[in-house]
Amino acid sequence: MEANEKTIAIASAVETIVRELAAAGSLRAGQLLVIGTSTSEVLGRRIGTSGTPQAAAEIYAGVEAVRRDIGFYPVYQCCEHLNRALVIERAAAERYGLELVAAIPVPKAGGSMAAYAYRHIKDACLVETVAAHAGIDIGDTFIGMHLRRVAVPVRPSIRSIGEAHVTMAVTRPKLIGGVRAVYELDGVADSRDAVVLSPEQSAGTCD
């Protein structure tokens, strides 16, 4: 199959999985969604060998369709030749206090997806790292280093974009403490307006 044929329906497939991820993680306006992509893998070739701006454009369009509705910040991961730096809107970088790095992604150093995003995101810049609220990996590029702790896998209804394997994750805050820790307010309180604890939770005291 020719490369241009393989880009057909990519945008709609990407839109579908981004909407699924946004729903699973309750992604909100202003939050960060990191996207790692190998356009070579989308076309059924080995990562880093056959990048294509056509596939990048389709993936970008699918993400943008959801971003316009929700208002999250898409963050596009570069390849290892730029140390997996990320393309992001400057307003988002400033909002999250991210450190900028000096490079311009191109297909041979950054990857076709990051290069395309850099030229289409409003006031794009490059940052060294982020702690994103959710992430999508198209082509097994590995985005875990840019996710918040704790990552929770989400299984997409579409398991591949083109020929590229898809994985996704949302994140949640760490659950801290031991057997006495409480993680949800259930609306039940005692006479002192404190949460009612189980016997295990109420053993001992922190007073």
Report on this model:
It is a single chain. This protein is α+β, with helices and mostly antiparallel strands and 207 residues long. The protein has a single domain (3-171), classed as Hypothetical protein TT1679 (Rossmann fold). It is built from 7 helices and 8 strands, in the order ααβααββααβββββα. Strands 1, 2, 3, 4, 5, 6, 7 and 8 form an 8-stranded mixed beta sheet that branches. Helix 2 (10-25) packs parallel to helix 4 (53-70). It is globular and about 60 Å long. 40% of the residues are buried.
Annotated CATH homologous superfamily? Hypothetical protein TT1679
Q: Can you tell me the residue ranges where pLDDT is under 50 for at least 5 consecutive residues? A: none
CATH class: Alpha Beta
Strand content: 15-25%
Mean pLDDT: 90
What's the structural domain tally?
1
Report the strand count. Answer: 8
Write the layout of secondary structure elements.
Blueprint: H1 3-6, H2 10-25, E1 32-37, H3 39-42, H4 53-70, E2 73-77, E3 86-89, H5 90-95, H6 112-120, E4 124-127, E5 134-138, E6 151-154, E7 160-161, E8 164-171, H7 199-202
Parallel strand pairs: 1-2, 1-5
Antiparallel strand pairs: 2-3, 3-4, 5-8, 6-8, 7-8
InterPro entries: Antibiotic_NAT-like (IPR028345), DUF436 (IPR006340)
Protein name: UPF0340 protein BBD42_10820
Pfam families: DUF436 (PF04260)
